[in-house]
Amino acid sequence: AALVLWTQPWNLFTWVRLVSMVRAVRLVHIFSGLSLAFHSQTSLAALGVTSSLLFTLLLSHIIGCLFFVLGEERLSDTGFSWMQMNIEGLGDEVYQAFNDVYLYLTCLQWSVAQLTQGGHDLVAVNSFERALTLVTMLFGWIAGSTLVSFLSAVLIDMRIKSSERRKESTILKLYMQQNGVTREFMHQVMRSSDRALRERDHIVNHGEVRALASLPISLQEELRWHIYKRHVQSNKLL
Length: 238
What we know:
Number of strands: 0
Distance between the termini: 72 Å
Number of helices: 7
Largest sheet: none
Order of helices and strands: HHHHHHH
């Protein structure tokens, strides 16, 4: 009886969905931690692209497995499934005549094509397959738009910060030129200033954390103690 329940289509969908949810939650926690570790905008953009690619591959795998289940379990209101369709270019050969590796790669290619709005020769032939195709295409459109928006925001922020650094460097250089600073010493100051400006973007000052103002005073004091505790404890004069 347990084997029958396990092999029922709905239970297969349920288990696949549960496994995918667990994996998705774990990935969110992993990449959230990584995003805190990366401070530079370039690293953040690279992390965003990498995480989006990995998430797309994982989602494509899950959707491909669902599409495989639809064809394997013969869930159809038309009497046909995609596995019974002829393979383009191979005459009368149908998909179900090939091994599982080929079928899995076919489903994976189909899911990637739907998510990325690409073309594929595999056609849905019943309502269940059509519904999955529609949902996958809509999700791919939303995910693609979100990725483009994220990268655009990161690139704009990078451009703004770079423009601010150039402006400050230009003002500093003009100040030294107007006050007769020698060229050799000016180059030394400019190199040090450029390095300091780049490092400044990676450091979060206390005044920049506006969320601290929303915390209770007692919690702010406790947080301040946790931040400066190691300095106080390492001071032998206290």
